[in-house]
Specification:
4-stranded antiparallel β-sheet, alpha/beta, about 20% helix, rod-shaped
Amino acid sequence: MYFLTSLTAFFLTLAAVFSSPISDTGLIERHLPASVCKEVVIIVNVLKLYKATPFCSSFLHISTATTTSVVTTTSTTQLTTGTTTTSYVFLPGNPPAPSAKHRRSVELEAPEEEKRNLEGLPSYIAAFASSAISKACSCLSLPTPTTTVTSTSTTVITQTVPAPPKFSTIYPCADPLPSPGPAYGDAPDPFPPTIPGSENSLYYLDTPEGASAQGCCNACFFEIANCIQAYWYSYEGCVVRRGTGVMGTGQGVTNSCPNGVISGLVYGPDVNPAFRSSGNIVGPCGSAYNNV
């Protein structure tokens, strides 16, 4: 008996507190007969207190209105044409040591899924009869739930682009020679028309260029412009053969190749090294390096 008296007092208090609409809940009485809503005013006020719009929409089985939205997108695809060319990037010294790959263990903990039973009643409303709850929910202005279905329309545009160049990074003068990559090889004999002339320079053993095969290689690749070929002799030093009047392509311009790559300068294997030399060292301005 004490419990029922306390419960009645609680709901009478709610009726006194919520006898007028609460503006910040968004729940407003519908234009129903006053007698219907007065019968369940206590439940109406409880629903307002707990902002029970979602509960009432589910309880009354209010249908969801569906709207359709059409989104138009443009997709661009590229069609590659032509032949991929290889551009060489020559760097001094030795290639960097491969870095150790660290494995990172990642744990993905799935969060617990919150489940809601729409047929069950929340604790704040469980003491009332279903018919009374239905009337109370009907006294509230409940918005119609809406959902939007998006339809996508895609327009495909095809663009034709030339094949991108392939870049190959090489350390031609890495220690010890021969290094991986074009360090030793032969220039074409005779030179192509793009190299109308040439001249030789000798660097003796007491110079940085002539002190070792690496020094001679570095001189050809990174110091002397338009170096076509170099040779290192252990008893004399380094001979660098430089092209004169070079007609470059304008592509791949560097300090070593101020006119760019030299068309027709195709290097092949070192089958006939210079007499008493460590081998024929190729130059940095070749258009191709075949089997070197």
